[in-house]
């Protein structure tokens, strides 16, 4: 095997996809270690402080991921070393206790605007950027990403608390983003939703997560009907300012396939009936905690032709007769009911439901 050159070894490695096998390959000798690094396309880093020591081995990386804290300087080093990156996954995986511990350290540094801007400048082929829970990432980073990453299709800003309508205005100008996560971005208001609904992104956006954005109201939600190809919308826990006025507006988005309205306590049967009648492509709907919803609204799904997944957890105003009507929906595959109803629904009825779809309790 020692007569094989780097090119031949590279051809062999193209058939080795398992990461453990590639690791074993790299441990054979120095040549195999070098070739494995030169052909590696993805990496998951658990010790970011060591990045300057090993990242130069992987010059053609397309995917970089770390769930750990990482400094701006280390991300700048990645940008200079791996200019071909297409996917950046910095979604932070830390417990609340771990986050509280670092917040108490005044000299602690986690990636922020400078690091993201450096990456946007150095890696112009980014298509997917995930920044969930990076609390130092703000408007400047987002604006730089939108301006410099012309191929960006997925952007996750979930729980980036510094992001506000200024960043959303920039996102609205994008003509490539298909997936946008703004979960718990508490500074986003109706003005931000207007930018999404009237900008270029309204022609490309397919998935929008606004869960826990509690400053938005019916006014902003009503604008979402102008997003022409929206297939998935999450408005869970957006607060009491979303009522049937906004719910009816959402029902006019005929392209919707997945809809989460969990814990919108001011939505009633009026919204549910409108959704069942108008969202003909709907596959999944979550009505958890919508306490004003009763069997009158839920029955409307009995004639739906596409619905497969229906969540009614913490919806207690539903009886057996209502469920019998819902089961007329032949496409239904899963239904989630409130566990408090379990003792009131006879076992024979539960068995009957299970004949038509999977029954879950929550």
List keywords for this structure.
36% helix; globular; 13 strands; 362 residues; 16 helices; 13-stranded parallel beta sheet; single chain; alpha/beta
What order do the helices and strands come in, and which of them pair?
Layout (H helix, E strand, L loop, with lengths): L5 H8 L5 H8 L3 H10 L2 E3 L6 H4 L8 E3 L6 H10 L5 E3 L6 H8 L9 H10 L5 E3 L8 H10 L5 E3 L8 H8 L6 E3 L8 H9 L8 E3 L8 H6 L8 E3 L9 H8 L6 E3 L8 H10 L5 E3 L8 H4 L10 E4 L7 H7 L7 E4 L9 H10 L1 E4 L1
Parallel strand pairs: 1-2, 2-3, 3-4, 4-5, 5-6, 6-7, 7-8, 8-9, 9-10, 10-11, 11-12, 12-13
Helix pairs in contact: 1-3, 2-3, 5-7, 7-8, 8-9, 9-10, 12-13
Helix content: 25-40%
- Say what oligomer this is: single chain
Residue stretches low in confidence (pLDDT < 50, at least 5 long) are none
Span between termini:
58 Å
Indicate the mean pLDDT: 93
Strand content: 5-15%
Separate helix tally: 16
Shape, principal axes of CA atoms: globular
Structural class: alpha/beta
Spatial strand sequence of the major β-sheet: 1-2-3-4-5-6-7-8-9-10-11-12-13
Number of strands: 13
Task: Explain the overall architecture.
- The chain has a 13-stranded parallel beta sheet, covered by helices on one side.
- The protein is 36% helix and 12% strand.
- The mean pLDDT is 93.
- The protein has 362 residues and is an alpha/beta fold.
- Helix 1 crosses helix 3, helix 5 packs parallel to helix 7 and helix 8 packs parallel to helix 9.
- It contains 16 helices and 13 strands.
């Amino acid at each position: 095997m020692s007569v094989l050159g780097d090119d031949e070894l590279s051809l062999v490695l193209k058939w080795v996809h398992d990461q453990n096998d590639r690791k074993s390959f790299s441990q054979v000798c120095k040549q195999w270690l070098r070739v494995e690094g030169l052909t590696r396309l993805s990496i998951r880093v658990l010790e970011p402080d060591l990045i300057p020591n090993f990242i130069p081995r992987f010059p053609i990386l397309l995917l970089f991921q770390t769930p750990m804290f990482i400094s701006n300087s280390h991300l700048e080093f990645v940008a200079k070393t791996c200019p071909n990156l297409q996917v950046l996954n910095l979604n932070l995986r830390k417990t609340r206790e771990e986050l509280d511990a670092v917040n108490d350290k005044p000299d602690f540094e986690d990636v922020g605007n400078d690091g993201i801007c450096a990456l946007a400048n150095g890696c112009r082929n980014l298509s997917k950027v995930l920044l969930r829970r990076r609390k130092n990432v703000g408007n400047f980073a987002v604006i730089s990403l939108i301006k410099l990453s012309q191929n960006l299709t997925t952007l996750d800003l979930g729980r980036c608390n510094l992001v506000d309508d200024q960043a959303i205005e920039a996102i609205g100008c994008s003509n490539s983003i298909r997936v946008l996560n703004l979960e718990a971005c508490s500074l986003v208001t109706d003005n931000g939703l207007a930018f999404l609904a009237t900008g270029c992104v309204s022609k490309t956006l397919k998935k929008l997560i606004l869960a826990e954005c509690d400053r938005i109201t019916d006014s902003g939600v009503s604008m979402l009907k102008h997003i022409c190809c929206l297939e998935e919308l999450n408005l869970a826990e957006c607060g009491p300012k979303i009522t049937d006025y906004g719910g009816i507006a959402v029902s006019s988005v005929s392209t919707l396939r997945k809809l989460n309205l969990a814990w919108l306590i001011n939505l009633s049967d009026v919204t549910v009936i409108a959704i069942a009648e108008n969202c003909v492509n709907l596959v999944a709907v979550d009505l958890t905690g919508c306490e004003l919803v009763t069997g009158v609204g839920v029955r409307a799904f009995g004639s739906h032709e596409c619905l497969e997944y229906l969540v009614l957890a913490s919806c207690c105003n539903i009886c057996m007769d209502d469920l019998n009507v819902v089961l007329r929906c032949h496409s239904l595959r899963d239904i989630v009911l409130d566990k408090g109803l379990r003792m009131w629904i006879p076992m024979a009825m539960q068995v009957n439901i299970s004949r038509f779809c999977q029954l879950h309790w929550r």
